[in-house]
Design goal:
- The protein has 117 residues and is α+β, with helices and mostly antiparallel strands.
- Helices cover 57% and strands 17% of the residues.
- It is built from 3 helices and 3 strands, in the order αββαβα.
- A 3-stranded mixed β-sheet has the order 1-2-3.
- Helix 2 links the parallel strand 2 and strand 3.
Amino acid sequence: MANYRVGRVRQEILREVNDILLKEIKDPRVEGVTITDVDLTGDLQQATIYYSTLSDKAGARQKTEQGLAKVTGLVRRELGKRLSLYKVPEIEFQRDPSVDYGNRIDSLLDQIKQEED
């Protein structure tokens, strides 16, 4: 039964964090960030929030990481206001590796296609 609750809370956090980053946060380093997934522990105490950006440049990625680290407390406080949980989970932002993995597979497929022609 607890797995259903974890899933529902996970989806709610995903939706609310996307909304908070879009409407509440004015930091230019955080613009264009999309929340792709949330990994939540079974006791709802810690949440790892995975994000992606449109930029592939290392400098832009680092600025985005710094911006998200700066607004973590504000995002958690807003989550506390919006969600009816006994304790708001500690949050941590991590870049979603699946986006880079997908880009790598696309480039390999393009390379194979060029070799065949």
